Amino acid sequence: MNDRFYLSLAVSEAWKYQGLTYPNPAVGCVISDKNGAILGVAAHKQAGLPHAELEAVKEALSKLNPLLVFPLEPNELYAFIVKNHNNLLKNSTFYVTLEPCSHQGLTPPCANLIVTIGAKSVVIGVADNTNKAKGGAQILKKAGIEVRTGVLSEECNELLEPFLLWQSKSFSFFKLALRLDGTYDNGIITPHEARVFMHRIRSVCDLIVIGGETLRADNPLLDARLINGKAPDVLICTQKAVKKEANVFSVKNRETIIQSGLDFPEKYKNIMVEGGSNFLRAMSDRVDRFLIFHSCDFSLKGSKKIETDLKLKLLHQSHVDNCSFGWYRKEHSNISI
User: What are the chain's domains?
Assistant: First the structure.
């Protein structure tokens, strides 16, 4: 087992939370002891929660000392670990998809934590070049910690691209829910836990975009009610009149925009697009990623299938409940950042 193996575990863990960490990047971390045994595998799960390194340290210390009772608030957790790590992670190795941060934001600087607990080495997939957080590698090197960079850089950059797009312009993705036979009509497709997961992603989006066909066929609410979350604003792209009795207008404290064109308003940074075949074809060159859910229930029937010649590259596949989902990008495409 080498650096690529351990870092691939960190990449895979981080992808589970892609779409949930906005406006923060999805980051994964693995910690091994001096003999290569894995002590912690963790990821940043949501803005305001502990960063991946802090989560991994917590998991590792829990394994080495089950009697420890950790506070939940990130700053309190950080202070608790600094006081109670007892050198249990001395000479450990950290594998991090993104360079550990060097600044105090909602959570403390991860580079300082790694120094404090006495890590021997840190393997970094991609450097953090943001003005606010860069410099973590220099802190580590100055403390005498070995730093190895550029491992799985392509995979780590793919993981980071949504965050970079949030910084420069906007990030948009097309969400689809399909049965195994490719149909997407005739009622609910995915199981409850998958819909809860999707509502979590919705709750951190600024905008949901649909076409008039989806509005008329499904009359959706497009909120985050399954988690009592914030409902994003809605953009309806249609050249036909929209009935004000539609469900989207019943959700309070959000803006609903109606327009004939397909361009996204510039003020929105994190954008989800939903629809069927026609809207997918119209939007395929306008979105940066595709998030596709596949229901594993053969008893569900539909009649409409996705019809497109779109070719996609799978970036990561996971599952929730009895449902698989994957993040994709267009094959042979490069995102301009």
Answer: 3-167 (3.40.140.10), 171-330 (3.40.430.10)
